[in-house]
Specification:
8-stranded mixed sheet, alpha/beta
Length: 287
């Protein structure tokens, strides 16, 4: 597995536009990787890197932020999903702002969408070579609990990959990649807090393994952050994270904030671009 570079994209709903900004800088500066692990919004926005569509994520989010059929309370009430399936995964990708399925398929970058299996409570890392055929895995990765219906694929039932493995850094270490870049959507020092068990037990009581994973997800996240910071201090991994706090709702409608978090991803990445190129041994050229 040596000589491969892995890119890990944390989720975080609309905070994921930070990663979209980072990835647009990567594309404009010919920063390439071999493998991507996208979690939740990291998968949904990160797929544009494999399809080579600079600016697509911020473009459609700004354009449709206030469209009731995109995502939000109206969609939740009328469909049971905060992200409207027909709008987000059909109309948007085929008509309104087409995803370049052909480029995605032909791009040799391996893309893994992280999902959480409700029956086992374990993360699954689904390799997606054909985004058109396997779009449901992207939807499953971003289906947040409580505001999304579980997604059934081939007899398995899935929800948000962030529940079981929000930042699959340990997975990347296990796979023994030579270089690892981690893009986080929280500022330095953020730790998750323990949440009440009751909501999970009430809504997902038929899936005890999932409930156990969900109520302990904060521990796994905090341990992973500690591990990343350790490797970062030893210069064994490159990490990009927001340099300042921009308060965002999970389903943020304020387009100024959406633009701000995207722009922060761009500026933070540009500031660190020389270090990233040195880490990856990339020639100083762009397109």
């Amino acid at each position: 597995m040596k000589h491969k570079t892995a890119l890990i994209l944390e989720g975080g709903a609309m905070r994921g536009l930070y990663s979209a900004g980072v990835l647009d800088v990567f594309m404009k500066n010919n920063i390439s990787v071999d493998v991507i692990y996208g979690v939740s919004a990291g998968a949904l926005f990160g797929l544009n890197y494999k399809s080579r569509q600079i600016g697509r994520a911020i473009r459609y989010n700004l354009k449709y932020a206030h469209n009731k059929n995109y995502m939000g309370l109206y969609s939740l009430i009328t469909t049971g999903n905060v992200m409207n399936r027909d709008f987000c995964f059909k109309k948007l990708v085929y008509e309104l702002d087409k995803l370049d399925f052909e480029t995605y398929k032909n791009n040799p970058v391996e893309f893994y969408a992280v999902v959480t299996n409700l029956q086992t409570g374990k993360p699954e890392y689904i390799k997606i070579d054909d985004a058109e055929k396997d779009m449901e895995y992207f939807r499953a990765s971003g289906s947040m609990p409580f505001v999304s219906k579980p997604v059934e694929i081939n007899g398995n039932i899935y929800l948000d990959g962030a529940i079981a493995d929000a930042v699959p850094f340990k997975k990347a270490l296990q796979e023994d990649y030579e270089k690892i870049i981690v893009v986080l959507t929280r500022a330095m020092g953020f730790n998750r807090k323990k949440k009440s068990h009751l909501p999970y037990k009430l809504l997902y009581g038929d899936f005890p393994n999932f409930v156990e994973t969900a109520i302990n997800s904060y521990k796994n996240y905090n341990e992973t952050m500690d591990l990343i910071e350790k490797y970062e201090a030893e210069n064994k991994v490159t990490v990009l994270r927001p340099s300042k706090l921009i308060k965002m709702k999970r389903v943020e409608k304020n387009t100024n904030k959406l633009q701000a978090i995207y722009d922060l991803g761009i500026s933070d990445c540009i500031k660190k671009l020389d270090d990233i190129k040195d880490y990856l041994n990339v020639k100083a050229e762009s397109f």
